[in-house]
Amino acid sequence: MQKQKTIEELQKILELIEVERKEDNRLFVEMVLETSIEERKSRGITWYPITINKEYLGLGGTFVIEIETKDKNAEHNSFSNGAVVSLFAEKGRGKKNPFVGGVVKNVEKNTMTICLYSDELPEWMEDDKLGVDLGNDEKTFVQMQEAVRRVIEAKNNRLEELRDVILGSTPPKFSSLPRTVVEGINPSQQLAVDKVLCAADVAVIHGPPGTGKTTTMVKSICETLKVHEQVLVCAPSNTAVDLLAAKLIEQNIEVLRLGHPARVHRDVLDNTIDAKMLRHGDYKLLKKWRKEIQDLRAQATKYHKNFDRHKREQRKQQFLEARSLVREVQRLEKEICREILRETQAVVCTLTGANHELLKNCEFEVVFMDEAAQALEGASWIPIVKARKVIMAGDHLQLPPVVKSVEADKNGLGISLMEKCTTRQDVAVMLDTQYRMHQRIMNYSNRVFYNQKLQADRSVKERCLANEISVVDFIDTAGCGYEEQINPQTKSRYNPGEAQVLFTHMRGLIRLLSADEEMLGKLSVGIISPYKEQVRYLKEKSFEHMKIYEVFGPRLSINTIDGFQGQERDIIYISLVRSNSNSEIGFLKDIRRMNVAMTRAKQKLVVIGDSATICAEDFYNGFVEYIEEIDSYTSAWEINT
């Protein structure tokens, strides 16, 4: 009966992934396909017109182009390294297959380098004005659905056993191996490593903010590699994957970082399949063949206008020869890749990257998943399909998976596999010592989320900017008339009054710290808001406060809560934005996000909001009560007078 419920639960997840896929596609169509070029340009999701300055064959036989736009506003855009894009021709829009897709390798000012999904430019692009749109990639949804189907259909194999343990229908098993003492970690981290090594099926490292989750994960991987020759290490984001790869490289582990080079941080590029291929003995032959391919294509494209039958046939033959050589390049590349894989200890990739062609039919004794609480369940199953044992690490009390569909979120797609496993089985060890923040910054999150089990290490417990400066401030804008506003284009909210209070307070803090120029010159500051429009407004207005820039310069960053995940700053300001007569707080209700925001601070936390609006929610009412307990309440009237 329990197993049947597990299957039904997975079938429901499959349906919800489809709901999310449709919503994602609807939003993309609304944003790109149903709007004019000029409107898309104003939103920063389109460059038009563009010119192709350069085209060449990159690593792995990838066709690469460098484009440029003369649009002066192009620098303000939503393109980033690793983003999926679509090139289009103006006349081609509306025709069948009017796009060619690709991935952004690099974007700088008004130039962009793109790795295309095609091995040549389509003919329809030769005589038309071209543009590039921010694209939509449905491949991830297909991969998630395929993985969940495999899990549902698993029978009489290891995947069935893991499925039933992770989802709670079968109890987990643990062996009683002799304890391995690991140097340089605290008692709770040691317990977590022990749990990992003794688990037969699954274990979870629960890492609250600042508790050294990544350190514990890396120690666990290193200890595991003393028993097994190779492991798979995954995370939902490229940023998290690159951090793990860098930490493992520091431990002299032979790492293979799988993934598109455009999405890999430069610090670990040497460990990508492409970089390792460059150092392989057969690379010279690959390089020779690639040069021949490029020459054949160059010769063929010379005859794209006004050519007779003979030249047309010659062009066709040159393209055929080029394609034949491409196949030879791909064959040799596969042989080299398999050799590289055999020499690897830790294969490191994103969750969807576990579907890499190189890993087809591979099985790993242990699969490690970091930041597992931020992953959609469907994505988490992708690497688990290849596992005999699963280790998850993360914090289900911080950022949840991103779900765009309200229906899918309401029906449970926003609950991660790690959260399900942690709440249904006794498989988790919580790391209980944090090394980031003053205890007063930690205390409220500890009370609400961690049942008072979290403690501040002695090195940070009383660390502050100065004894006479409070560690936590709540600046209350109630009664000041600083109501939220809505940008009619983006529909996102902002609050100019809060921004004014924030910068005024920051200037005052600089004055208080000015006696210690050396310390002031080292402090890092983060300004966080849950609303993108407030982030945009704060960035724009920050240029009017030159004193702040003179003091903090590049050590000042302004971003959303998601943008600060995994980061820390000496001083954190949080602008809550919401201020209205109906006490509506929107997605401020997701208190896990506020847990993230508040725990980014090391020495000082300043929260700015309207208590009359936010205190309708228990979390914020409790926070204001905590602020009163520690005598850290200030009215915005006092700041602006």
From TrEMBL:
This entry's Gene Ontology molecular function terms read: 5'-3' DNA helicase activity; ATP binding; hydrolase activity; RNA binding
Provide the protein's localization: Cytoplasm
* Residue stretches spanning the membrane: none
| Annotated DNA2/NAM7 helicase helicase domain residues | 185-405
Q: Which InterPro entries match?
A: Coronavir_polyprotein_1ab (IPR050534), DNA2/NAM7-like_C (IPR041679), DNA2/NAM7_AAA_11 (IPR041677), P-loop_NTPase (IPR027417), SF1_C_Upf1 (IPR047187), SMUBP-2_HCS1_1B (IPR048761)
Alphabetical UniProt keywords = ATP-binding, Coiled coil, Cytoplasm, Helicase, Hydrolase, Nucleotide-binding
The UniProt entry's coiled-coil ranges are 286-335
Residue ranges of every copy of the DNA2/NAM7 helicase-like C-terminal domain listed in the record: 414-611
Q: Which is a Gene Ontology cellular component entry for this protein?
A: chromosome
Q: Which residues form the Helicase SMUBP-2/HCS1 1B domain?
A: 11-120
The EC designation for this entry is 3.6.4.12
* Family, as annotated: Belongs to the DNA2/NAM7 helicase family.
Protein name per the record:
DNA helicase
